[in-house]
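About this split. The held-out portion is used to measure sequence recovery: a designer receives only the structure tokens and must propose an amino acid at every position. Recovery is the fraction of positions where the proposal matches the reference. Here is one held-out target exactly as it appears in the evaluation file.
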């Protein structure tokens, strides 16, 4: 997910298809804007009991945080050991589960105290986590999602994400929203809505332009990355790496029948 070693070229490819086959496309309306730490290289985000929980990446700078939404104040913080690049996080029954990028190691912390309880291993890269109340769902930067037993954290099965019948690669930060999996597509301004049964993309959300001209961010890595959902109040939040703001958004359907295909960057 870190692209300091190469230059990423990406674009959004628009393809016209028959209306019956079109994937719904949504723009977003900003409902509220909140402060966000511009030093936070956001890798994971979720909402729970009035707070945001956020993980940040980069070796020697990775952390897990509990944050007040209205002020952006960090009320609790755990620094991840310097050798690890922190990635996605999720809550599960009083625990907080976290991934690392290329170390093949994940951690389980006590959700209330952030005290380490155990660690676990997995093959490949770790990108993001969410859960559907029965199992934990993990992305690894490919077109596949992994499903994990929440008690053992062992993989039970995989699901390929497809858009217009083709694998969609670089599926990133995840959130379970109303029976669907929402996911950032890394290095694009798109969020996809994934059917968890078929893996098919059921909707495309365009968040281009959500940052205003005065919202200065530095570098090619300062991209959209972070989705959180407050199910009780039906609030959807998004932010990005080193973004100065967190946005509560509302989806607004487009009337067009074109399917917009987010093209993931080549590695």
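Reference sequence for scoring:
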């Amino acid at each position: 997910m870190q692209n300091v070693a190469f230059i990423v070229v990406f674009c959004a490819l628009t393809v016209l298809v028959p209306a019956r086959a079109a994937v719904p496309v949504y723009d977003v309306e900003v409902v509220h804007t909140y402060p966000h730490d511009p030093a936070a290289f956001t890798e994971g985000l979720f909402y729970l009991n009035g707070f945001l929980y956020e993980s940040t990446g980069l070796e020697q700078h990775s952390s897990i945080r509990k944050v007040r939404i209205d002020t952006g104040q960090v009320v609790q913080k755990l620094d991840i050991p310097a050798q690890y690049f922190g990635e996605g996080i999720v809550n599960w029954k009083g625990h907080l589960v976290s991934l690392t990028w290329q170390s093949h190691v994940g951690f389980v912390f006590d959700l209330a105290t952030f005290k380490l309880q155990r660690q676990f291993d997995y093959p490949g890269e770790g990108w993001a986590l969410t859960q559907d109340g029965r199992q934990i769902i993990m992305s690894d930067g490919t077109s596949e999602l992994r499903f994990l037993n929440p008690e053992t954290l062992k993989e039970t099965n995989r699901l390929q994400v497809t858009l217009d019948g083709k694998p969609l690669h670089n599926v990133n930060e995840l959130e379970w929203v109303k029976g669907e999996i929402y996911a950032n597509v890394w290095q694009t301004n798109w969020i996809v809505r994934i059917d968890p049964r078929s893996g098919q993309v059921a909707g495309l959300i365009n968040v281009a332009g959500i940052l205003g001209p005065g919202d200065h961010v530095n570098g090619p890595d300062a991209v959209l990355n972070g989705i959180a959902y407050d199910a009780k109040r039906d609030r959807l939040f998004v932010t990005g790496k080193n973004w100065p703001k967190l946005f509560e958004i509302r989806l607004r359907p487009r009337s067009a029948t074109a399917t917009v295909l987010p093209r993931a960057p080549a590695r």
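Annotator remark: The chain has no helices and 24 strands.
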